[in-house]
Model the fold of this input.
Amino acid sequence: MLIGVAGMVGTGKTTLTRALAARFGLQLALESVDDNPWLESFYGGGSDEMRAYALHLQLHFLATRFASMRRMRGLGGSWILDRTWYEDAEVFARGLHEQGLMSTPEWTLYRRLYAELLHSPAARPPKLLIYLHGPLDVIVDRIHTRGRPKERDTGIEYWSTLHARYSSWITDFQHCPVLALDVREYDLMTDAGAIEEIAGRVRLQLEGELPQTELWPAVSRRRVFA
Done:
């Protein structure tokens, strides 16, 4: 079984993913960006460099994501995933095309590869997608107070565009059931009871499918992909 956690930066995806993994004894798959060799080239220069390396950047993310999914399927068991492959393609790669940083032929090639990968056994849809959302001003405020230095220094225009893309994406999302959580109602950083309330809602959605280890500590048995 697979649960996906989706949402833009600042919504608390990683915090929630870790908390639910511990609560339900799920194996944990965290997003990894630091091992992408194209990041420095993409962000290290101006718009010309971004156009030159946008496709390389996104193809690496896509290949890494599906390699992780293939390993998870081979290991078996129940997993929770911090960010999904759907977002990689349908929010971020599409956004680069819309910004003119990925040409139409490059975007067409990327979409062809993504479509083929979606038909692979590793890409079976999650049983549930937990979608974290909230007003732009609330999310940006959290980024400024809790985010990484590079995130805090990013201009509001970027976050506004990303927020709009996520809203459009989730409106049309049909791959699996969605549990939408407003971040104004669940602040895992300050509310100790929030995880129990969210866990209860997840349990209702996945009755009978969660691991039967919920009442026992399961942290030592979890595998982590980062």
DSSP finds nine helices and six strands in the chain.
